[in-house]
């Protein structure tokens, strides 16, 4: 078992060199047992280290910063519940960058209201996948384009439940106020 001092020294070192934000929502167990071993009960000793969030943005996909804005919009409990009620699905986004590379993100509006990298949360599959170029996603998020026109113009491809895809636009509008693209 790790001792309290060892863990705290390691966390302080990571924090100093800026490497503490290396994973999304890393929950670090707290130290509160009498024998200084790791437990999962709350402790004020490591409360400053309890949750670390990493950006969903990928430099090669500039519009991916919008996923951070969406996550931020969904961080409010009432907004998240409203979005889950309206969305009712897991939305996957496959974005193609200028170099032709593809990357996936998801928005779980079926259960958790979480936003993450990949096609869907672990053990789940998306209800609908929207496939489009990064530049077109930036226009969609900023309100300079709408999904229906992108789809009709062949710039947006949809796999899965097309009717669910129509429920995504109001959710994206919430992020428009937070996205800086």
From TrEMBL:
It comes from the Eukaryota. InterPro entries: SCP2_sterol-bd_dom, SCP2_sterol-bd_dom_sf. The lineage of its organism: Eukaryota, Fungi, Dikarya, Ascomycota, Pezizomycotina. Signal peptide: none annotated. Pfam families: SCP2 (PF02036). Coiled coil: none annotated. GO terms for cellular component: cytosol. Residues 73-173 form the SCP2 domain. This is SCP2 domain-containing protein.
């Amino acid at each position: 078992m790790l001792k309290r001092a060892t863990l705290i020294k390691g966390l302080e070192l990571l924090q100093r060199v800026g490497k503490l934000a290396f994973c999304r929502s890393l929950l670090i167990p707290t130290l509160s047992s009498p024998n200084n071993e790791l437990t999962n009960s709350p402790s004020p000793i490591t409360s400053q280290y309890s949750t670390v969030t990493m950006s969903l943005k990928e430099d090669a996909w500039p519009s991916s910063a919008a996923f951070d804005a969406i996550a931020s919009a969904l961080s409010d409990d009432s907004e998240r519940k409203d979005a889950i009620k309206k969305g009712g699905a897991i939305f996957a986004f496959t974005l193609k960058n200028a170099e032709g590379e593809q990357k996936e993100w998801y928005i779980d509006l079926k259960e958790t209201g979480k936003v993450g990298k990949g096609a869907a949360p672990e053990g789940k599959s998306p209800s609908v996948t929207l496939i489009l170029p990064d530049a077109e996603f930036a226009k969609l998020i900023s309100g300079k384009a709408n999904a229906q026109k992108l789809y009709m113009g062949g710039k947006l491809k949809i796999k899965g439940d097309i009717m669910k895809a129509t429920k995504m636009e109001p959710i994206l509008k919430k992020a428009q106020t937070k996205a800086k693209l």
